[in-house]
Amino acid sequence: MSPVLRLVGLGLGPPEYMTLKAVKKLEESDIVYLDTYTSPLPSELVEFLRSRLADRLKLAGRSDLEEKAGELVEKAETMSVAVAVPGDPLIATTHIALLIEAAERGVECEVVYGVSSLSAAIGISCLSSYRFGRVVTIPREAGEESLRTIYRSVEENIESGLHTLVLLDVSDGGLTASEAVRRLLSVGAAVGGRFGPESLVIILARLGYADEVRTACKAAKVESLRLPPPPHIIIIPSQLRSYEREAVGKLMHVDEELLRPDVSVGMRRSRAERYIAKASSVFAKLNILSGDAETHRILELAQSYLDDARFFLNSQMVDDTLIAVSYAEGLLDCLRILGRVEFTW
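Predicted structure:
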C-alpha cells in the first residue's frame, strides 16, 4: 500500500455511525491507531474495529498522539497509517498538529470526515445554526478564575443575541450536566450575571446512543433530571426567535411559559429603536452654525456612533445599541451647547 497518513472520523460512538468510506479506509491501512484520549469510546466500537482489523489495531493514548507524534508520522513515510478518531478528526487540535507534522515531512495526508457531536448537538437543539456564538468547554478541574472566564463568554454570547454550546470534560467518567450547571449558577450568583436559575437550558446526553436524552428546562431544574452517564452537552440559548420557540416547544415538549420572550429585552429594544429614530431625525434637520473642521469631525464621529447603534440593533446587541446611541446624543448635545449646531430633540 502507498505511504499515507489518514485521519478517519468514527462518528458519534456506536459502530453504525461510521461511514462506508471510514470502514474502507481503515481496512486499507497497514496500521490503525485508535484515539482513546480525546473522547470516550464505547466497548462495542472497539470490538467492531478489532473484528475488522485484528492486530493492526493499536490503542493510542495522549503520549502516542502528542509526545510521540513524530514517530507516528515517520511510519507514514513508508506505510499507510490511519488514526481513527471518535467524531470528526479535525475538531481536536491534537489531530491538526499531526497534519502539520506530516506536511513538514512531505507525507501525503488524507482526511475522512465523521459525524461530530458539535454538529449533531446544534442540529438537534432546534435552534438556528447561524445564531451560535463562541463554543466553551468546562474542564473537570476548572478553578474559580477559569469558571469566571467561561461564564463571561456565555454572558457575551447572550448579550450578542447568540446561543452557547457548552462542551463538558469527558475524562474520568465525564462531567455531568447537573454539576456543570451548578458551577455556572454559582458564578452567576457571585457576579450578578444574566444566566441564572430561571434561564432556559437544553441538555443533551449520549447523542447517538440508544439511551440518548434530549430535554430543555430551567437551569434550576437540571439537578432533578434523570440522565444517563456522560458524555453530556449543554446549550444555553439567548433570546429565541419565534421559529426557534415553536421548534423547541413542539419537538422537545417544553412548557410554553418557559419559552416566553424576555419582556425586559423587548422593552430595551423598543427604547433603543426610539432613540435611534430620534437621533436620525436630528441629523436630518440640524442646522450647522459653525463650518470649522473640528465641528465636522465631531459630527462625523456622532454619525459613526449612530451607524454602530444600528448595526448592534440588527445583531440583537441591545445594550451595546443603547450605549452607542447615547454617545451620538452626547456629542450632538455638546455641539449644541457650544453653539456650533442648532436642533431640538
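Summary: The first strand starts at residue 4 and ends at 9.
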